[in-house]
Amino acid sequence: MSHDQHFRVWRGDSDKGELVDYPVLVNEGEVVLDIIHRLQQTEAQDLAVRWNCKAGKCGSCSVEINGRPRLACMTRMSTFEEDEVITVTPLRTFPVIRDLVTDVSFNYTKAREIPSFAPPEGVEPGEYRMAQVDVERSQEFRKCIECYLCQNTCHVVRDHEENKENFAGPRYLMRIAELDMHPLDAADRKEAAQEEHGLGYCNITKCCTEVCPEHIKITDNALIPLKERVVDRKYDPLVWLGSKIGIG
Ligand code: SF4
Ligand code: F3S
Ligand code: FES
């Protein structure tokens, strides 16, 4: 079964833009990205949208649909009423390049600011041994497809451009947590998490977790444990002393 639906899509560039109305055909089984593609084939041939896999795995097609950050390729049209207006807008937290495409380089900058895995001294590659429980813990975090929906949603930066410099965002605080919990990582990440990457800005609202298409428990399994580890270090005098004299 097919029907016509009222789409409203943000069109514009970094200077100005507006919502434009389009009546568009919807077929059974389609997702929002199918409808964007139909608009590109018909009434809006120059409509810009970023996408790649159409399978929820590349993380490219992040937009806001009726104000909710979503993957366009994983949002089924059947979840809307047929007479509902569907409004599609670019991610709000990042600068617009054109139409639905935003400049997400903030995230690449934050990724580069986190030092990579630091292997322990005297252990050669191939000699690493880890408990299964430690492997499984980091595997949850490694499901991340870097869609940046969590980065876009977190209120710390969503309406506060001024916080961007000092806040890595949930995806990259999760990366720090993953490394800090890694039994073989030799770097000390706790102080940097707090002082350089803005862990203290996170007040555990869990909005990041709610929008994650991979259902990663970002707040419960990464951010709260990282906060606990940082607090342990800061307020436990024995741990603090140990770290000062090299036995921590
Ligand atoms: Fe996307 Fe989830 Fe990764 Fe955030 S943690 S970038 S929401 S997949
Ligand atoms: Fe932001 Fe997630 Fe913390 S939404 S405030 S990073 S719990
Ligand atoms: Fe790859 Fe949507 S197109 S996640």
Write a concise synopsis of the structure shown.
This protein has 248 residues and is an alpha+beta fold. The protein has helices at residues 32-41, 105-112, 132-141, 149-153, 155-158, 170-180, 190-195, 207-211, 218-235, 237-245; strands at 2-12, 17-27, 62-65, 68-71, 85-89, 96-98, 101-102.
Overall shape: elongated
How many strands?
A: 7
Query: What small-molecule ligands were found?
Result: iron/sulfur cluster, FE3-S4 cluster, FE2/S2 (inorganic) cluster
Q: Which regions have little confidence, pLDDT < 50, spanning 5+ residues?
A: none
Q: Report the major sheet.
A: 5 strands, mixed
Report the total helices.
Answer: 10
Q: Estimate the helix proportion, in percent.
A: 25-40%
Q: What is Rg?
A: 21 Å
Mean pLDDT: 94
Distance from first to last alpha carbon = 65 Å
Tell me the strand percentage band. 15-25%
Oligomer: single chain
Strands of the widest sheet, in order across it, are 2-1-5-3-4
Task: Specify the structural class.
Answer: alpha+beta
Order of helices and strands: EEHEEEEEHHHHHHHHH
Detailed description of the structure:
- With 248 residues, the chain is of the alpha+beta class.
- 35% of the residues lie in helices and 16% in strands.
- The protein is built from ten helices and seven strands.
- The chain has helices spanning 32-41, 105-112, 132-141, 149-153, 155-158, 170-180, 190-195, 207-211, 218-235, 237-245, and strands spanning 2-12, 17-27, 62-65, 68-71, 85-89, 96-98, 101-102.
- A five-stranded mixed β-sheet has the order 2-1-5-3-4. It has a two-stranded antiparallel sheet with strand order 6-7.
- β3 (62-65) and β4 (68-71) form a beta hairpin.
- α6 crosses α9 (218-235).
- The longest helix has 18 residues, at 218-235.
- It is elongated and about 70 Å long.
- The mean pLDDT is 94.
- The protein binds iron/sulfur cluster, FE3-S4 cluster and FE2/S2 (inorganic) cluster (FES).
- Residues 51-54, 56-61, 71, 73 line the site of FE2/S2 (inorganic) cluster.
- FE2/S2 (inorganic) cluster (FES) binds at residues 51-54, 56-61, 71, 73.
